[in-house]
Design brief:
alpha+beta; two-stranded antiparallel ribbon; 6 helices; 15% strand; globular
Length: 185
């Protein structure tokens, strides 16, 4: 299965994918230390989000979002991170698995634009599709759906969010591809 097939599966799947065969790995860091680290780094997460908003105000992306989350949880079941190496890999894995609560899903690594991509799931996803760690959730969760200044937005169909092309972008780039309504199934 390639990455595009996986994303199509993530968009259409109604049931949660199977956990790894050996189960979701236990976290070794104590819950108290995890919460303390999340609280200590929360101001930096908010500072990063504020600078992102300022940048998007100064350089308007051609797309904007509308709609609301339907709490299907598929964005929490298929979190894609590029593979890293060396000490960065160890820090990245520690932070995202021990502090944020992500775990590697079973299956192969994928390749996209020359980079290896690993698929993670989130242990904080509840049965009703809501987040069990909403107040302390990481930046990757806070900035979903992803709208960047360059490139197309990243959103799963059926999630409830709609992606629209700004009128100013259509005037400036008349050939700009209209992104389909992400909430239609």
């Amino acid at each position: 299965m390639n990455l595009e097939s996986l994303l199509l599966k993530a968009e259409t799947e109604a049931d949660q994918p199977k956990d790894p065969p050996e189960g979701i790995p236990e976290q070794t860091l104590s819950p108290l230390i995890r919460k303390i680290l999340q609280i200590l780094f929360l101001p930096f997460v908010h500072l990063d989000l504020i600078t992102e908003k300022i940048a998007k105000f100064l350089i308007r992306p051609p797309f904007e979002t509308g709609g609301n989350c339907k709490r299907r949880g598929n964005c929490c079941r298929y979190i894609l991170f590029p593979e890293t190496t060396g000490i960065v890999k160890k820090l990245f894995l520690f932070w995202n698995t021990e502090v944020h609560g992500f775990y590697k899903r079973e299956g192969p690594d994928y390749e996209h634009e020359g980079k290896k991509i690993r698929v993670y799931g989130c242990r904080h996803l509840q049965k009703d599709g809501s987040c069990g760690n909403y107040f302390l959730r990481p930046k990757v969760c806070r900035s979903w759906p992803l709208i960047t200044v360059f490139g197309y937005p990243k959103v799963l169909k059926g999630c409830g969010y709609k992606i629209k092309v700004r009128d100013s972008a259509l005037k400036k780039y008349p050939g700009l591809k209209i992104y389909e309504d992400a909430s239609s199934e």
